[in-house]
Design brief:
This protein is an all-alpha fold. The chain is built from 8 helices and no strands.
Length: 199
């Protein structure tokens, strides 16, 4: 047996099989493959670095414990995302009950319907101090307005934008129909555009 695993050539299923056989190198490879994605999903929901790191770590502990029961009915990535989303939801509710000041950071394009794409402009590297002030204010407003969206709509929009997941993947993650996902995202986009004075 090889002592090293080629992360790029080994499939998720092969890594999972090796982890379940006690190969900790395979587990480290699986974590390397998905750690950044788990963090990004958690950050999209929570908007806080420390909480997002905690959620991602907790999610991987749960994943490791549950891995022997993973049947492979869905892709590992979808299963992993669902666990991270659920953990992030729990953390969000826990913070909300304690009055934590939460912000949702959106630094990705906000895409529109199938006929067009809407972008929040990001500053270039040569921005002036005045540009920096304007951008900081714009970013703050986006975070605030995102926070004011209904949670189910905000969550669907984040999953679409942070990781560019397909409607089908989001539907599976959120345990709802594709039509429901599209409706939530459309409502979130429309409300966000109105709140930002874009329409």
């Amino acid at each position: 047996m090889s002592n090293s695993i080629n992360d790029d050539m080994t499939s998720d299923k092969e890594l999972i099989r090796s982890v379940n056989d006690g190969d900790m190198n395979a587990w480290e490879s699986l974590m390397r493959r998905y750690a950044a994605k788990a963090y990004q999903i958690a950050y999209g929901v929570l908007g806080q670095k420390e909480d997002s790191e905690e959620v991602a770590q907790d999610a991987f502990v749960r994943i490791y414990r549950a891995l022997p029961k993973f049947r492979g009915d869905s892709e590992f990535s979808t299963w992993m995302y669902r666990i991270v989303v659920n953990q992030a939801r729990n953390k969000y509710r826990w913070n909300s009950r304690r009055g934590a000041n939460l912000n949702v950071s959106i630094n990705k394009p906000i895409d529109g319907d199938d006929n067009g794409t809407y972008y929040f402009d990001l500053p270039d590297k040569q921005k002036t101090p005045d540009d920096e002030v304007v951008f900081d204010e714009w970013s703050r407003r986006i975070s605030e307005e995102m926070q004011n969206l209904p949670p189910v709509n905000r969550e669907a929009l984040i999953l679409r934008n942070v990781k560019n997941l397909s409607y089908e993947q989001i539907a599976e993650l959120l345990d709802c129909k594709v039509g429901t996902v599209k409706s939530r995202i459309a409502r979130a986009r429309e409300e966000l555009r109105k709140r930002m004075g874009m329409r």
